[in-house]
Structures are given as C-alpha cells and as structure tokens.
Write a structure and sequence with these properties.
Strand order of the largest sheet of chain D: 1-2-3
Distance between the termini of chain A: 87 Å
Helix content of chain A: 25-40%
Order of helices and strands of chain D: HHHEHEHEHEE
Order of helices and strands of chain A: HEHEEEEHEHEHEHH
Structural class of chain D: alpha/beta
Largest interface: B-C, 35 and 47 residues
Distance between the termini of chain D: 47 Å
Low-confidence stretches of chain A: 191-198
Structural class of chain A: alpha+beta
Number of strands of chain A: 8
Strand order of the largest sheet of chain A: 6-1-8
Mean pLDDT of chain D: 84
Shape of chain A: elongated
Oligomer: heterotetramer
Chains: A alpha+beta (198), B alpha/beta (228), C mainly alpha (415), D alpha/beta (204)
Helix content of chain D: 25-40%
Number of helices of chain A: 7
Shape of chain D: globular
Largest sheet of chain D: 3 strands, parallel
Number of helices of chain D: 6
Chain lengths: 198, 228, 415, 204
C-alpha cells in the first residue's frame, strides 16, 4: 500500500513522543545550567599545574624542565626557568618556573604535555566554562591561574590521582633510603664536597 | 604477487624500450618502487593496468615529494705532476694528493603512485616519476587518462608542489585559490609574514615574531599595525 | 548623477546566450578529449534549451553541503549539465604542519582530519608508523582498536544517514535519532579517552590507557541495545515512500567507473564490488571475527543508504565478538619510546578501512624525528571524483542528495 | 534610569510589573537570538550536537538556525577559517542585519588554534570583524557553547541604549560593515582590518 512506509515512520515518532512522558530513556534533554551531566573521570579540557600542600608556589611540582614546551604540538606553552632553586617533593633542590603561560586560545586539549611530563606536575582540568569576551586577557593563563592543589586533582580524577600519589610516595621513600645510605658514606669520607651527590 | 624484479622483467618484455629502475626501500615495510622514464610511462602504466596477471586496476594514492638540491662533499685522490728538487736536480714527479670536491646534486620533484588490484586483491606496486629539476623542467606525464582516481590528486600535487602533469585534462589549482603564486608544500616555501599575537612564542615561532617586530619597527608607525 | 555603468548597446548577445555558447564549446571540447582517450564517462548532455544555461555556485556557504564545499553547477532548467567541485575552503595544512613536528605530535592532528571518526584516523596513522618502524602491537591493544573502530563506524554511519535525510528535507527528525545514539557512543569515548570527539587515543605500538571492566560492561550494554536502535531507524526510514522516490535510481554509479576512479568504502560496495580492506588486508585482527560485507546492486543513493545501515548491523556483530573475546595483557609495546621516536630511513604506506573508505597514510622517513614526507590519502576527496558523473542529467535538488550520499567530511577532503 | 530592585520585586508581588524601555529592549534582543546555520569545521559538529535533543539550544531562544544571513542575528564562527574562506565569512557578516553578534567558537576561530602555523589558516577571525564572545576549547563541549550563549545574553543585557555603554549598532559612527579581504598572490590583502584588531605587544 502506498503510504505504508510513511505511516510506519510516523508511528515510530509517535511512540517516541508518547514514550518521552513515561521513559527516562526517551527523554534525553539535559537542562544544562540547572542540571549537569556527570563529568567523566577521564575528561580533559585544559592543563593545570599541580601543587602539594597549601602554598601554591612553594609546593609546585613543576621544575621548569621545558619538556612539555618542546613537545606541545601547537606550541601553546611558554616557560621561563628560575635562576635559584627550591626543594621539590622529595627534598631535592630543583628549579621552578618563574613564568609558565598557557595560551588556551591555541591549546588543542591533546594531553601530550601530561604524557611527557616526568614529574607528574601538569594534569588535565575538567572545567570547560571559560567563555569570555576578552581575547587577549582572558585566554592567557599564567602560573598562578594554572596552579591547582593536589586535593583539587583528587576531586576531579580520583583514581588517577591516587595512583600518582602512590608512585610519588614510593619515589620519596626510595630517595630517603638513598639519602640515608649516602649519609654514612659521606660521613666516612669528609673530604668529598658536601651536597655533591645531589 | 610478483616481486618488483619480476614486474620489472615483465614490463621490459611487454613494452620495448621502457626505462624502468628499481628504487629500493630500506625500511621494514619493504615496499620497493619502480622509477619510470617519461617517454614510455603511460605505456608501462597501461600494461600494468591491463595485464591479466597484475591487473592493477585501482590507483589508490598519488602524491608528490620534494627532494631539495643536495650538496655532496667527497674526497677524491688526484694524481698531480709536481716539480720537485731531488738531490739538487729538478725533476717532475707524480704525486697523489687528496682533494675535497663539492658538487651539488640537483634536486627534483617526484610523483609517487600507489597501485593495487581490486580484481586480484594484491598490492601495492609503487611507481615513481621524477622531474628534471625543481625549477624549469617540472613536467611529468599524467596518468589520469588511465585511472580517473588521479584526476584530483594530480591537481593537488600540481597545486602544492608545482609538478606539471602533461596530458591532464583539467590542470588547475585545487586547494589554494586561483591567482596564488607559490607551491606551499615545497620544502623551501617561505610563508607570508602575517604576524599573529604570540603570547607563548618560543623557538622558531619566537624568531619569526621577533623578525616581524623588527621589520615593523623599521618601517615605522605606518606599517606597524601589529606594533601598536 | 547615476553611478551605474551603462551597458554598451553594441552587445548583441545577451549574457545567457553568451554563456550557453561558451559552455557548449567547453563541453564539446571535453567530450572530444574523452573520445580521444577512451575515458569511460557517461555521455555529456549538451545544452539544448532555449532558455540558456544558468551557472550556480552552490557553496561554500550552503546549508546542505557538508561544511564549506563548493560546486560550480551549470543547469539547463532544472537539469544539471556540468558540475565542478571546488575544494580548499578548509585546507588547513595538515601535511605541512606534520612534516615540521615530531611523529607523536601529529597524532592529535589526525583527529581533526575526519572529525567524525577520530579513532579510525588514529589507527590508520599508528598503523602506517608501525609499518614504517616495524613495531608489533600487543593483542589486547588490537582488540581495543577494533572495538573503538567499530563503534566509530556505527556513529559515523548513523550520523551520515541522518545528514543525508537532512539534505533531503527531513529536517531534524532522523538526525535527532542518529545523534541520540551518537551521544551514547561519544559518552563511551569520553570515559575512555577523555574527549568526546578528538580522542587522541592510539599510540605507536598500542593504546594510551587501558580499558576497565566497568567500561567494557557499559560498552556491552550499549552494543546489546544497538540492534533495537537500528530497527527503529529502519522503521522510520527504509520503506518510507518519499525516501524511496528521492533515492532509488538517483546518482547511479557503474562498478567499472567506480574502480577506475578509486572510489572506496560504502560507495564502492554499493555498486557491487566486493572490496573491503578488513577482508583484503587482514590488518589488525579482523580475520578472527565473523562478519559479512554488505554489497549493493545498483550503486544508487538508496543502495548507499542500505549498505550503511547493514554495515552498522555487521559492526554490531564484530563488537559482540570482540567484547566477548578480549584477552588480558599489556596494551603497549614496551620497546617503543614515547619521546625521541626516530624510525630508520624508509617509506611505508599504511591503510585501513575507515567508515568513509580507504584511509591511507604515506610516510617517508629520513631517519630524523620528523617525517620527511607525510601524506594522507583522503577517501572523501577521491570519492568526489565521480560526483560530476553521478549528477549529470539529474535535477538540482538531487545534487544535494547525491552529495549527501557520498558522505564527505571537509576536514578530510581539504586537510 | 534604574529602578530600585527591591521596590520592583515588591511591586511584582502585588501584580504590578515595572520595567524600563532599556530592559524591555534588551530582554527582547537577548531572548530571540537566532544563529546562522554556518559550520566551518570540527566545532560545527559540536554546534549541531548542541541543537540536538540532548542539549537543545532552543531552550535559550535560539530556536532555529537560519541558513540565510539576512534572517540571522548571531554568527557562530565554528571552526577553522582558512584564507580561502575568510572573504566569504566577512561577506556573510556584512550581509547580516543589525544588531548582529559573533561568537568565535573554538581555538581555530579565535586565533588559528592548533593550525596557527599553517600557511592557509587565518590567525583568528577577529582580524577582520569584531567578536563578542570567545569560547576556548578544541572543540568546546556543547555545554560550553550554551554557556557562551548565556554569556552573550548577559552582555546584551548590560547594553545601554544611549551614552558610552551603548553597543556598536546603536552608535552611528561605528562601522557596521568591514572590508572584505581579497585573495592576493601570496596572502590575503589586507592581512587584517585596521581598527578591528588591536594587538598587544609581547616582548620577550
């Protein structure tokens, strides 16, 4: 019969329309600002810098090694290395970034900076509500804007963050053991330059 | 499927006077290619397509490659006649001297064709065509008349590399606009200086941004729109 | 004080006549060239109408071209007598940028080629590099790749059919159905890879992160519900009389022309040519799965539509098998370095069956950290070679439908 | 002239609604911003996803996507603008009727994004025409587009009809059309429209 196919299709849409009153499955709309979809744990938008403890500059894990700057495909990271050093999470003296800028108007959210970072310092954030009318001011993030606490990292990527913490703790234990082993050796040989092993 | 050597032999048997050379591929993929001479290229390609055993009816990929001029330095031993005073007597002695010679191997543009067979489900056979140099002898014969698949791809190679395909029915620019002068995929292409605000510039990008700012400063306030 | 230019009175010809004359000359010349070289092309329609010929530039801003694509169409009344595609409005220099950066850094750029199917693009590039450097991929990673590629195929085909219907004038409804399913698949992608569209997931020698059991369970649930969606989609469309009238016999393509023009993917299989790289190249682990290749008969728009729907069903079969059999094990080849990756000199051409056709990557390495030559063989662009042949003689309204059935993505056409 | 907010609420409770012409005008403007159906690249897919059932941009008064620039108020530049496409984008913008707004969606539209170093990529659409809202992301999530849309609505709400804070389309001296660039032999000419693109200098 001519028109049968059309009627079949219309029945389908009618089923979906009526079904949307009773079934969650068929009512897919998310009323965005009031109601939000759960953010996936692996979700990534823009990078941020992790710091330990309460002070953002003191606890920053980044040692300004500039690997992410080199590997970043669209070249949206800019780092300036410090002249002096500060202790990092295992107590080793390290450089820190005096300047760490990410231009999020260029960033392509590819996560390669996170993958290449050997210090677990840069991670991906999940905040996406960043629309602004100020292109030159609003889209260039400096190191203070980028710094987020480890607690925040735990809140957005719990599984990944605990793994990272476990790894860092292990390293710390190893480093301490090494330091302990090195201390008697250093004491036995006083002429060796102090701190040279670091 | 036949090996490259067998294909070469088959071509030489079928197309008299065909110039075919094997270009080896040192990589693990082992896809060696056949370099064709210009005169018989279309004949050879027709043979490859129509030969029932090869039946390469499907041209998958056409692309260009730009090989720049290479400066080759080599050490050559040269015999030279030197006049020497030996035991108070002047003599002419032949001596071997090391000499470094430099010569420039001219670069060329290359069109690469990847052929497969849909009928017999084998492949790839890689064909290469080379131009004389990179400036004025940039013609190679077109294979569009044999495989329509080459139509847009050869146009793209013409657009981006500047290889002129002789016999192509509609050789116009395809990706860039009409009136564009350069061939941007060539290795020595210089981009136009359209400066962009670069807050995170480093390495080459920083160099370019600095060059632009220096240029803008030299031109004064008039052309320094970006300097303001 | 008029600023309008006056038209010289000596012009005896009207512009339409002039146009028709110019056009008929060019068409005759083209036909002449075709005869000379024995091209297999359908006969060229010469303009016969007295009304003259109208040249229409469809695009680059056109609601139904899939992005920024232009067709210069000459129409005689409603009939198309000449059609030239114009590309390049989204030419964003993917190849040039890739030749200037490290091998790894090109991976996120491949996501943006065919932005519906980022995971198959990743796979094609990873496959080409693995071929170039001789890397082996662990078994579990191969399974993950197959699962993701088939999910990509489902969402691409669903969206392609939705867009085809959108072009046909069914504004909204089929596309909404397609996007409803697509969103579910995108949620899966996001949970695994972190991003909805630009997944950047595969690496040379494996995958970036491992799938969890929870994710696999979710995928199994989604795949179990998929046949129901396809049934619903088909009930909505397949026997719809309007769709049949608009699609059957429109844009028919002969198999020999399709092969000669390098057409691949569902478009080729709709003409009846059995050529699917999953069966031909046996790349990955596709020979472990049982699946059939749907083939068309007439090569028209309706066949392309049907082939896509059937491919969704076959993809569901593959997914069911892969999700059942996936083994435990590593997901990365331990020998492959992430940074400082330098393959030995050589070249390789790697290709896979992407949802749109054969997606190939041709790489030349000179031993450095950047590829010397990086080329993408874009299936969408080469499938457009036969666009003119398919459209000649049809109405203008059909051109939009035919273009919709080719299923192009401009990011890949122009790169 | 502003109304005392508390008084207004109090009167609203009594069933008397008070407003100003300005508020009414802005309310009308922001509640029916119709975008143009105009996609360029990857971000366009997320834009389409935003209009689909799950995110449903129609809830914000952006009910229909108009294919014609003459019927649209908002241009969402969704995707990479190449140099070949830029003249057409500017021409479409010029053809839109006032008041018109522009959202630059995604990294490419803002600055060229990841493709910034390409020879055929325009390094930001704001070289040629003014942009109201920028959304970073590659591509931004559909929610991000909705949030940008609400940002635009807030911006419209803050407009004054007269005086300093008035928008561009109420200022007779401000240009409504911008020069369409011409494709030249090596690059677009001009490379940017003077006055639209104030670029800060970054000295390193």
């Amino acid at each position: 019969m001519l028109g049968e196919g059309i009627l079949k299709g219309l029945a389908q849409t009618a089923k979906n329309f009526a079904g949307s009153y009773v079934s969650e499955e068929r009512l897919t709309t998310v009323q965005y600002p009031e109601e939000r979809l759960p953010v996936a744990e692996a979700s990534r938008v823009f990078p941020f810098l992790v710091f330990d403890g309460s002070e953002w500059l003191g606890g920053m894990r980044c040692v300004a090694c500039q690997i992410c700057e080199k590997e970043c495909p669209p070249k949206c990271i800019y780092i300036e290395k410090s002249k002096d050093k500060k202790p990092d999470y295992v107590g080793k003296q390290q450089f820190y970034p005096v300047r760490f800028d990410i231009d999020i108007s260029v960033c392509m959210s590819c996560q390669i900076c996170v993958e290449v970072c050997p210090f677990e310092a840069i991670k991906m954030d999940t905040a996406f509500e960043l629309a602004t009318d100020d292109r030159f001011g609003g889209l260039l993030l400096d190191r203070q804007q980028l710094a987020k606490s480890n607690e925040y990292y735990h809140s957005i990527h719990p599984t990944e963050a605990s793994e990272v913490d476990a790894r860092l703790d292990e390293e710390k234990v190893k480093a301490e053991a090494k330091a302990k082993a090195a201390a008697p050796a250093a004491a036995a040989k006083p002429p060796a330059p102090a701190g040279g092993k670091d | 499927m036949k090996t490259v050597e067998e294909i070469k032999a088959a071509i030489e048997a079928a197309v008299p006077g065909a110039k075919v050379e094997i270009v080896p591929n040192p990589g693990p993929s082992g896809e060696h290619s056949l370099l064709l001479g210009h005169e018989q290229a279309v004949e050879v390609a027709r043979f490859l397509r129509d030969d029932p055993e090869l039946a390469l009816d499907y041209l998958s990929n056409v692309t260009g490659v730009d090989w720049l001029d290479k400066e080759v330095t080599e050490k050559v031993k040269v015999k030279r006649q030197v006049t020497k005073t030996v035991d108070g007597v002047e003599q002419t002695v032949e001596e071997t001297v090391d000499e470094t010679r430099k010569h420039v191997e001219p670069g060329y543009l290359e069109a690469v064709y990847h052929l497969f067979s849909m009928a017999r489900k084998h492949g790839p056979v890689v064909l290469r065509l080379r131009t004389g140099n990179r400036t004025d002898q940039v013609e190679v014969p077109s294979l569009t008349m044999l495989w329509r698949a080459a139509e847009f791809q050869e146009r793209e190679v013409f657009d981006l590399y500047g290889i002129v395909f002789k016999g192509h029915p509609d050789l116009r620019r395809i990706l860039m606009w009409e009136g564009f002068k350069d061939h941007p995929m060539r290795k020595d292409y210089v981009e136009p200086d359209d400066y962009e605000y670069e807050p995170t510039a480093h390495d080459q990008v920083l160099k370019r941004a600095q060059a632009h700012q220096a240029q803008a400063a030299a031109m004064g306030q008039e052309g320094a729109g970006a300097g303001q | 004080m008029s600023t309008f230019e006056t038209i010289p009175e000596s012009t005896s010809q009207t512009s339409a006549e002039h146009l028709a004359e110019r056009l008929s000359k060019s068409i005759t010349a083209a036909a002449e060239a075709d005869r000379r070289e024995g091209w297999n092309r359908p006969p060229v329609f010469l303009p016969e109408s007295e009304n003259g010929v109208l040249e229409v530039a469809m695009g680059p801003h056109h609601p139904s071209t899939h992005g920024v694509f232009r067709m210069d169409v000459s129409v005689d009344g409603e009939r198309v007598i000449r059609l030239k595609p114009v590309f390049g409005y989204l030419h964003r220099n993917h190849e040039k940028i890739a030749e200037g950066t490290a091998y790894l850094a090109s991976m996120p750029y491949t996501d943006r080629l065919d932005y519906f199917c980022s995971l198959t693009n990743n796979w094609a590039y990873a496959l080409a590099v693995e071929k170039l450097a001789g890397i082996q991929v662990p078994e579990r990673a191969e399974y993950i790749r197959v699962i993701l590629a088939e999910l990509t195929r489902i969402q691409n085909h669903a969206a392609a059919v939705g867009f085809l219907l959108q072009d046909m004038g069914a504004s909204g409804t089929p596309l909404m159905y397609a996007f409803r399913e697509r969103e579910k698949i995108l949620d899966l992608f996001e949970q695994l890879t972190g991003s909805r569209m630009m997944c950047n997931y595969m690496r040379f020698g494996g995958c970036r992160v491992d799938v969890t059991d929870a994710w696999l369970d979710r995928a199994r649930r989604l795949v179990a519900g998929m046949p129901q969606f396809v049934d619903e989609f088909e009930a909505l469309l397949t026997t719809n009389e309007i769709l049949m009238v608009r699609c059957q016999g429109i844009g028919a393509l002969k198999p020999d022309l399709a092969v000669n023009a390098g057409v691949t993917g569902p478009m080729l299989r709709a003409t009846g040519v059995n050529y699917d790289l999953r069966k031909v190249d046996h790349y990955g682990i596709y020979d472990r799965f049982k699946f059939r290749i749907p083939l068309g008969d007439h090569g028209d728009v309706y066949d392309r539509y049907m082939v896509r729907i059937l491919e969704i069903r076959e993809a569901v079969h593959i997914l069911e098998q892969a999700l059942k059999e996936i083994p435990a094990g590593p997901i990365m080849d331990p020998k492959t370095k992430l940074r400082g990756f330098r393959p030995k000199p050589g070249e390789a051409y790697g290709r896979i069956e992407a949802p749109k056709g054969e997606l190939g990557f041709y790489l030349i390495s000179d031993g450095g950290s950047n590829p010397y030559r990086y080329r993408v063989r874009p299936p969408s662009m080469i499938n457009l070679t036969v666009l003119e042949d398919m459209c000649l003689g049809h109405n203008v309204a059909d051109v939009v439908v035919i273009l919709g059935s080719v299923d192009i993505v401009l990011g890949e056409v122009d790169r | 002239m502003a109304i005392d907010q508390e008084l207004k609420i109090e009167m609203g409770k009594q069933g008397v609604f008070v407003t100003t012409i300005q508020e009414l005008y802005n309310w009308g403007r922001r509640s029916s911003v119709w975008p143009m159906q105009f996609g360029l690249a990857c971000c366009a897919i997320e834009m389409i996803a935003t209009t689909m059932a799950r995110y449903d941009l129609a809830r914000f008064g952006a009910e229909v996507f108009r294919p014609s620039p003459r019927q649209a108020d908002l241009m969402i530049v969704a995707g990479t603008v190449t140099k070949k496409m830029a003249p057409q984008v500017v021409r479409l913008y010029n053809q839109m009727a006032e008041p018109k707004y522009v959202i630059a969606m995604g990294a490419c539209a803002i600055s060229g994004g990841p493709f910034k170093q390409g020879y055929n990529v325009l390094k930001g659409i704001d070289r040629y025409m003014p942009v109201d809202v920028h959304i970073p992301g590659c591509p931004p999530r559909p929610e991000a587009l909705i949030q940008a849309f609400m940002t635009l609505q807030k911006k419209i709400d803050s407009h004054h009809l007269t005086g300093e804070g008035r928008p561009r389309y109420l200022d007779p001296d401000a240009p409504g059309e911008f020069k369409v660039p011409e494709p030249g032999e090596h690059d677009l000419e001009p490379a940017s429209n003077q006055g639209v693109w104030p670029v800060p200098v970054v000295i390193r």
